[in-house]
Amino acid sequence: MAPLLHRQPFKAIYIIGFLAFMVNIMLPCWLVYYSWRPNRPRKSWTLFRTVNVQMIRNFARLPFKAGVFSKRNLSLEVPQKELGPFNSRFVWIPELEKEDIVGVVDEHATRAGVKSIAIPAYWILKDGTTWSPAYDKAQKNEKVLLYLHGGAFMVGSVLFPTPSSRLLLLQMGTAHPSHPTASVAKGILKFSTSLSRLLSVDYRLSSGPPLEPENPFPAALIDAIAAYKHLVCEVGFLPQNVTVGGDSAGGNLALALIRYVVESRLPHLQPPGGFITSSPLADISFSRSDSIGSSHSLNSKSDVFSPPRSVSALIIGAYIGDIDPEETKYNRYLSPASKFVVPANAGEDAKLFSGFPRSYIMGGGAEAIFDDVVALAERMMDDGVDITTDFPPDAVHAYPMFGWHEPERTESLIKCATWFDERLVEQSNEGEGTLV
User: Fold this and answer.
1) Is residue 198 within 8 Å of 185, Cβ to Cβ?
2) What's the first-to-final CA gap in the chain, in angstroms?
3) Which of 274, 206, 276, 221 is nearest to 247 (CA)?
4) How far apart are CA 132 and CA 122, in angstroms?
5) Within 13 A of 58's CA, how many CA atoms are on the CB side?
6) Residue 381 in contact with residue 353, Cβ under 8 Å?
7) C-alpha angle with apex 140: 139 to 146, nearest 5 degrees?
8) Where are the domains of the chain?
9) Does domain 80-429 have CATH number 3.90.190.10?
């Protein structure tokens, strides 16, 4: 039976009371309390940023407390007239063939009863670029960004799921170009001189008790693989011209997608040319959370994403389904930054990230999982991956998503886009491709 607050009229009463309390009581209290700089979680923060962080921290817990999730109907096509203002285009990603799902992912899919399905995605074009029939296929030597949004694997549209809603954090886990979770990819697209479009993917979201269990691992990963195959095999992009990106949970999926392509060695799915991520949730076992002086404890009051253990267990439980939580410590697809994870092949020379492409990793020094982000970057670097990092000391989780998080947001997006463009020049010099 669903918890009391998940049922009407109790849900509506709680939500109305929560909103009234936040606006009429907590907001004025925060404005007064944080007007004195020493009271702020970070003394460098402005009052505006501090209050924004507090609002988001509290609103982010509302969906889990009151069960205010809305199921996305992935069988419906979004009309083009709705996407016109965002210079975007809806596209279907076909389901994978049976032979496309192999190895460990196939084992997990069989165990969980997960199959591939057709999923929605959005082509988002650079401002000033107009869609033409020629874009149905990759242009000669064209580069593209495949982006997987964040949202804790399970958070889609909350409270107000209509496309006309623009309320921040009430739409926090979809690929739709109007939603905040698309802003990181759109920012890279805006500042890059080499990208003319990107593909934003609406992979399946998970749910678990007290809600009806649905889409456990590896459903979302299979959707990501399908999107990558679509770009390479259907649209015709060269693998080295594809950069895979994602923030938060989407960063976890992007890492798993690259790992799958590297390890499966399917002849028609060669590894991508690059990887971009912001605050990747790279260790869902949170193996460093109990360490003395860890970012999980030090930044618990300064991050927008610092859920209580009960909420973390709900999120991870929904995503892993019937997998033993203890197994997440050792699973390289789920927790590649875990202290306990090891390479697939044992041996003195075995490397966990062998074959991974050049990577750009962003993370905030004020976020709870910062230690995991740093550990990921260091381990990839130790394994010989060409890594560039950007870690603003006072930035929160997935900070490039938030328009108010300046100047770090714009500075990081410009740096990332510059890295992307310069990487293409280097690849051209190495004979891996030429610039458009």
Assistant:
1) yes
2) 57
3) 276
4) 15
5) 15
6) no
7) 55
8) 4-66, 80-429
9) no
Element (H, E) at 343: none
**204-222 residue pLDDT tens:** 988 877 777 889 999 999 9
User: pLDDT tens across 105-137, in order?
Assistant: 999 999 999 999 999 999 999 988 888 888 899
Cα separation values, 203 from 88, 117, 220, 427, Å:
18, 10, 5, 30
Distance (Å, whole) CA 333 – CA 258: 10
Q: Global pTM? A: 0.90
Q: How far apart are CA 277 and CA 273, in angstroms?
A: 14
Q: What angle do CA 317, 323, 329 make, to 5 degrees?
A: 85
What are the tokens at 53? 């962080």
Structure tokens at 130: 């107009």
String of b and e for 262-296 (b: at least 16 CB within 10 Å)? bbbebeebebbbbbbbbbbbbbbbbbbbeeeebbb
